[in-house]
Amino acid sequence: MSRHAQENLASVLLLAFFAGVIVLCQDFGPRARMIPLPLAVFGIVLTLIQLVWHNFGSPAALQMEMISVRAPDIPVADAPSAPVKKPSWQREATAYGMVGVLLALTFATGVMPAAFLFTAGYFMLTRYCSWQYSLLYAAVLTGSLYLLFVVALQMQPYHGLLAPLFP
Predict the structure, then answer these.
(1) 159 and 101 within one domain
(2) In terms of domains, do 106 and 157 share one?
(3) Alpha carbon distances (Å) from 37 to 24, 45, 48, 96, 157
(4) Between residues 118 and 161, which one has the greater pLDDT?
(5) Domain for residue 70, yes or no?
(6) What is the predicted pLDDT for the residue at 152?
(7) Is there a domain that residue 85 lies in?
């Protein structure tokens, strides 16, 4: 199968998926449709644009060099040594551990405190920014989550297992 046919097949499958989402959304209530229905319509529009661009655009515009990297002109003797990286299983274990910490914090303290603690802790431990900016970013994130979900969408957040300890 040619690459052109493969891309058309993938686009048709995406159209079928988005159409299926629209059909399934018809059984949802008005508030439950607020996210999947507009996303499915937007996905259909973008997929149709891609199909038209791919099938009716000029073939020269569709051809691109995927890898065109010019090697630097550094003599081999002067080339810097590459830093030692952790094996991929250690990086994956770290990522799973971070997800586990976020889930445990959410389960114990609730959504809003977990978002604040996790964000601030992540920025501080990775030294991405100073502790003042870490706390500021965490506060802005938590405030925007509160405004979006509690105020705008009127959803009651999960308060966690430790909620009875803090009246």
Answers:
(1) yes
(2) yes
(3) 9, 12, 17, 31, 24
(4) 118
(5) no
(6) 86
(7) no
Q: What tokens does 114 get? A: 């977990």
Q: How confident is the model at residue 121 (pLDDT cuts 50, 70, 90)?
A: very high
Total residue length of the chain: 167
How much is the mean pLDDT over the chain? 85
Query: What's the confidence (pLDDT) of residue 59?
Result: 67
3-state secondary structure the chain: CCHHHHHHHHHHHHHHHHHHHHHHHCCCCCCCCCCHHHHHHHHHHHHHHHHHHHHHCCHHHHCCCCCCCCCCCCCHHHCCCCCCCCCHHHHHHHHHHHHHHHHHHHHHHCHHHHHHHHHHHHHHHCCCCCHHHHHHHHHHHHHHHHHHHHHHCCCCCCCCCCHHHCC
- Could you tell me if 157 and 150 are in contact, meaning their C-beta atoms sit under 8 angstroms apart? yes
CA atoms of 78 and 97, how far apart (whole Å)? 39
Q: What is the mean pLDDT of residues 123-147?
A: 93
* Shared-domain flag, residues 103 and 46: no
Give the domain extent around 104.
96-165
Residues 54 and 107 occupy one common structural domain: no
Distance CA 49, CA 61 (A): 15
Q: pTM for the full model? A: 0.51
Tell me, what's the pLDDT at 60?
64
